[in-house]
Design a protein that fits this description.
With 99 residues, the chain is of the alpha+beta class. The chain contains three helices and four strands. Helix content is 32%, strand content 35%.
Length: 99
């Protein structure tokens, strides 16, 4: 039996690129929600750090998430942000214990 996973990604755009990166992620949320195995996908901004973004994803299986990571739009986003982040995006993957 496959195990559902949750992915938490913290994105740290440079201030001058914040709006552009936020808008691209918001557009990507719409695309990701249509992918096979996606259960939830949301974009948040930190209350204490107004230029820090949080992406919360829930996937039916890790294989679904891995397929998502190879999507054309996500690869393009990663390339676009190469020099536009204060620091590298932090990604943590969690296995669902009980839903």
């Amino acid at each position: 039996m496959s195990q559902k996973i949750t992915v938490i990604a913290k994105v740290y755009p440079k201030e001058e690129f914040f709006k552009e990166i936020k808008d691209i992620i918001a557009n990507n949320v719409v695309k990701a929600k249509k992918e096979i195995g996606n259960l939830e996908y949301g974009l948040f901004v930190a209350k204490s750090q107004e230029h820090e973004l949080l992406v919360v994803e829930k996937w039916e299986t890790e294989a679904d998430y891995m397929r998502h990571k190879k999507s054309e739009y996500l690869l393009a986003f990663n390339e676009f942000t190469q020099d536009k982040l204060k620091k590298e995006t932090q990604v943590e993957i969690y296995n669902c214990i009980k839903a």
